Amino acid sequence: MNDTPPPPLVLPPNLRPPSRVPLIVLGVAFLGAAVLAFLQYQGRELESRLTAIAKKELKEAKAQIAELEKRAEQLKGEKEELEIAKADLAKSMQAKEGQLSEVQGTFKSFQEKMKDEIARGEIDLEETGGKLRVGVVDKILFDPGEAEISKHGEEVLARVAEALVEIPDKQIQVSGHTDRTPINGKLATQYPTNWELSSARAVHVVRFLAEKAKVPPERLVASGYGEFHPVASNKTPTGRAKNRRIEILLTPMLAPVAQSKLEAAAAQGHADNRSHKKHGKHGKKKH
Questions:
Q1: How many domains, the chain?
Q2: Are the C-beta atoms of residues 177 and 225 closer than 8 Å to each other?
Q3: For residue 149, what is the DSSP state?
Q4: In a domain? residue 173
Q5: How far apart are CA 225 and CA 146, in angstroms?
Q6: Residue 184 structural domain
Q7: Backbone dihedral angles phi then psi of residue 217, each to the nearest 5 degrees
Q8: Can you give the pTM of this predicted structure?
Q9: Bridge partner residues of 172 (DSSP)
Q10: Does 36 reside within a domain?
Q11: 100-148 confidence digits (pLDDT tens)
Q12: DSSP-assigned states of every residue in 232-286
């Protein structure tokens, strides 16, 4: 028995089935092209999104930088203002210390010159807040119900004036004060209320200081407070006696700049008044 296998069947080329390899290769190529196109599209989308995010973040960062620069400029300005304010405050404190030292020196000078009157209770001195107050009880200067200064009052005021003249850079405010007792009788025709009496007494003191004691009149101010600034109770004779007084208050003179501004404002006010009156006259003519 012959065990040799039969030879394989070989078909002619025209009868063989077509190969699938080209199709597979073509499919793989198409799929690869599609995947590549998709990846490229996704890459462009991602790049576009990343670019937009980067631009947005850059814009926000620039805005933050601009805000920080603006704030830094503000802080710089505030720092400069604080430095200026600090320097001004130091100057002001130095000036106040100088004024305080000067007032304390003036207080001691007054105390020495008027020690007899102070000892007798005719005058009292007080230094507070950079100001010097000289209080004189009314019975030393005036007779009851009168505004004219008595002879003894002139002697006391003359000694006060000697000390005032030696203080050339102080404003001198003379204020009249009364108790709460109403003015009655014939005196009421001349002084209807304590306002008039206190003001008249202050004016008489100012005139004496300017005309007889040679205190520069531009440094003097007269004011009347009536019964409305008591220093003691008006219910007792002792309290009423304390309330009837003349006070001489020494305060710093206006600085030249402030004085010139006041004078300029006053001049402008006069000019405005003249202009108003002039226009008023023209208006009347038109009617």
A1: 1
A2: yes
A3: B
A4: yes
A5: 16
A6: 104-264
A7: -65, -25
A8: 0.58
A9: 220, 250
A10: no
A11: 677 777 788 888 888 888 888 888 998 877 788 999 988 889 988 789 9
A12: S-TTSHHHHHHHSEEEEEEEEPPPHHHHHHHHHHHHHHHHHHHHHHHHHHHHHHH
